[in-house]
Amino acid sequence: MAKHIPAAESDYSESRNLRTLIQSMLSRWTLRRARERLIEFTLFLAALSSIAVTLGIVGVLVFESLQFFAHVSIIEFLTDTQWTVLFVNPRYGIMPLVTGTLVTSGVALLVALPLGTVIAIYLSEYANHRLREMIKPSLELLSAVPTVVFGYFALLFVTPLLQKLLPDLPGFNMLSAGIVIGIMIIPYVSSLSEDAMKAVPVHIREGSYAMGATRLQTALRVIVPSAFSGIASAYVLGFSRAVGETMIVAVAAGTQPNLTLNPTEGAATITAFIVQVSLGDLPHGSIAYQSIFAAGLTLMLMTLAFNIAGYLLRKRYREIY
């Protein structure tokens, strides 16, 4: 005969099982919640680390620059036309370095932006998938070439080639350095621009074709404006890369600060000066040594200004398109 279980004991057993089940579920939920919090905190630290590094760089530049400007007037720094910090009678005018940086970067952008945009249009709108998969990785190999190799390529190949067209061109000049910098940053411009164009929805292309537009008209009048936000980001990255280039300008453009806007002349850039002083025997804490931080702060502010301009431009085109 089956053993009879009292109703009270049965209810107690069910209640205990229910409490055990609830406690197990709460335990698993608490463990899962703790894991999610740990992952969220780890991701937050990863994001915070980039901000901390940026603030650290800015802090070092500002701290050292303040010590420099304690001895050198900011007005003299911004208005003087000579930069001779290593001379017996030093002059601290940053303008020769700024013009050298802007001229070489301007030449680079004149080379990279048109070529990079045209390549991006071809890869996005004309090339088939197989050809695109061959050309794009090959093009991106340019970004893997060491910049010192590009520097000697500019000095030993591009400059002699330009001297056949311009016999009076000196051996160190900003034109060849800017051209090679432009070649170097083409992958940055073309790859990001092509990705932005490929992200444009297909129905926009189909609508343009339905209106009777050709492939070129669709690319130039529909796809490029629609993807201009991403293309502008590629331009900003290209400019930042050109402004911060060191070895090409140090090898091919010269190290003599020269206040000129003529790209056929030699001049020093901000990065080339920083390399020149960093490799010297200047004592730590001297005014000449601290000048590299003032120059670096100037370069950072130039890049920041261009990034802000690029952000405003992207925001405007987002509102239009």
Per DSSP, the total helix count is: 12
Number of domains: 2
In terms of DSSP E residues, the strand content is under 5%
Q: How far is the first residue's CA from the last residue's CA?
A: 84 Å
Structural class: mainly alpha
What is the string of SSEs from the N terminus onward? HHHHHHHHHHHH
The count of DSSP E runs of length 2 or more, i.e. the number of strands, is 0
Helix content: over 70%
CATH topology of the largest domain: MetI-like fold
| Fourth-level CATH superfamily of the largest domain | MetI-like
Contiguous uncertain segments of 5+ residues: none
Overall spatial form: flat
CATH class of the largest domain: Mainly Alpha
Output the radius of gyration.
30 Å
Integer average pLDDT: 84
Main sheet record? none
CATH architecture of the largest domain: Orthogonal Bundle
What would you note in describing this structure?
The protein has two domains: 17-70; 76-320, Orthogonal Bundle (MetI-like fold). The mean pLDDT is 84. With 321 residues, it is mainly α. The radius of gyration is 30 Å and the shape is flat. It has helices at 7-69, 74-79, 95-126, 129-140, 147-165, 174-198, 202-210, 215-226, 228-243, 247-252, 270-278, 287-320. Helix 7 (202-210) crosses helix 8 and helix 9 runs antiparallel to helix 12. It starts with 6 loop residues before the first helix and ends with a helix. The chain is built from twelve helices and no strands. Helix content is 76%, strand content 0%.
What's the SSE blueprint?
Blueprint: H1 7-69, H2 74-79, H3 95-126, H4 129-140, H5 147-165, H6 174-198, H7 202-210, H8 215-226, H9 228-243, H10 247-252, H11 270-278, H12 287-320
Helix pairs in contact: 1-12, 3-6, 3-9, 5-6, 6-9, 7-8, 9-12, 11-12
